[in-house]
Model the fold of this input.
Amino acid sequence: GGKVQVEYIWIGGSGLDLRAKTRTLPKKVTDIKQIPAWNYDGSSTDQADGSYSEIWLQPVKYVRDPFRGGDNILCLCETLNAKTMKPIETNKRAPARETFEAKQVVDEE
Done:
């Protein structure tokens, strides 16, 4: 197969807005590990100050892109501080994931 587009999607600084940017990959994605992490300037989304504003996008889930079709995908991402690799304050997905992956919760399923 040919090249594919990955739409990286994350929640912005207000907690109510979605952000996205697109990257072209050389071939169809068949595993989340094939989607490279990426970064962006968090000062433009109110997720970092100007002194150090690099935010890391960590892919966590992907689905087929219903808009572009073909082998293109939408990729949901967690946002991490690029220095510490810890979730940033507006990353509400990280604590939710910890809850849902807790043994007590998993055992209830």
Helices lie at 93-101, 103-108. The chain has two helices and five strands.
